[in-house]
Amino acid sequence: MHPMITIASRAARAAGNIQRRYLEHLDSLTISSKGDNDFVSEVDKASEQVIIDTLRKAYPDHAILAEESGVSAGNEFQWIIDPLDGTTNYLHGIPQFAVSIALRRKGVLEHGVVFDPVRDEMFSASRGSGAMLNDRRLRVTNRKTLKGAIIGTGIPFRDRRHLDTYLAMLRDMITADTAGIRRPGSAALDFAWVAAGRFDGFWELGLKPWDFAAGALLVKEAGGVVSDLAGGDDYFNTGNTVAGNIRLHTLMLQTLKPHLNEQLKA
């Protein structure tokens, strides 16, 4: 295991311990709103702080991009942190949330971990070294068609500019004879589950880099493909993502393509 994965895993577990501890006291949490249907709690903040403290102790010169505290300056290395992906689930006691930590060097994803503290599952990946779940190597599914596939997604309930377009996409995904569409509520885990073969594919609109940075690397290192809606690599800028094995990814793009307006093509 790469030393940076070791440090990231340590930071993720420290955050996960905080989240497990507070689960028994959700009714007493201090919660504030960042926007429509977008909440932050003291657990998010405490989780982020312990992650940053752990990373800074090991790598004091590295830059950080974190969901709650924003961007801090540093060198060519940048940690991308979502301390609690799935906050709404967490605040309702739904056990589907995760810690996501990724490292980019000069804009290239090098390492990433997604930690599910409820199931004690640590997903990890390093560029060129494959993806792991705890001690087991991961591989995306080999499904060749959408028929019978399980596809993950995220509903655009905050930014609703493309809601009608999304609903048309959802209709076509359903009528492609997929086995089902799932919306668990944590994009980081959705990507990790594609890497682990639990989902055959995934798509969502309007994500932030911290939602998928680690997950995207997991999918790629598990033999899958991640792109924007047009099949390009601009998803870090657009936040619009499609992930799956090579064949299924192509079929998903074909299904989504008729619904792309000029904004979603960009």
Structural overview:
- The chain has helices spanning 3-22, 42-58, 87-91, 163-175, 187-195, 209-221, 235-238, 246-256, 262-265, and strands at residues 31-35, 38-41, 63-66, 70-72, 77-85, 98-105, 108-116, 121-126, 130-133, 136-137, 150-153, 180-182, 201-204, 225-227, 241-244.
- The protein is of the alpha+beta class and 266 residues long.
- The protein has an 8-stranded mixed beta sheet, with helices on both faces.
- Helix 1 packs antiparallel against helix 2 (42-58).
- The model has no long low-confidence stretch (mean pLDDT 92).
Which key features would you list for this structure?
alpha+beta, 5-stranded mixed beta sheet, globular, 36% helix
Topology:
Elements (H helix, E strand, L loop, with lengths): L2 H20 L8 E5 L2 E4 H17 L4 E4 L3 E3 L4 E9 L1 H5 L6 E8 L2 E9 L4 E6 L3 E4 L2 E2 L12 E4 L9 H13 L4 E3 L4 H9 L5 E4 L4 H13 L3 E3 L7 H4 L2 E4 L1 H11 L5 H4 L1
Parallel strand pairs: 3-5, 11-12, 11-13
Antiparallel strand pairs: 1-2, 3-4, 5-6, 6-7, 7-8, 8-9, 9-10, 13-15, 14-15
Please, how many helices?
9
Helix content: 25-40%
Large-scale geometry:
globular
Strand order of the largest sheet: 4-3-5-6-7-8-9-10
Strand content: 25-35%
Order of helices and strands: HEEHEEEHEEEEEEHEHEHEHEHH
Low-confidence stretches: none
- In angstroms, what is the radius of gyration? 18 Å
- Give the distance, in angstroms, between the N- and C-terminal Cα atoms: 38 Å
Query: What is the number of E strands?
Result: 15
Q: Tell me, rounded to a whole number, the average pLDDT.
A: 92
Main sheet, how many strands, which sense, barrel? 8 strands, mixed
Judged by helices, strands and strand pairing, the structural class is alpha+beta
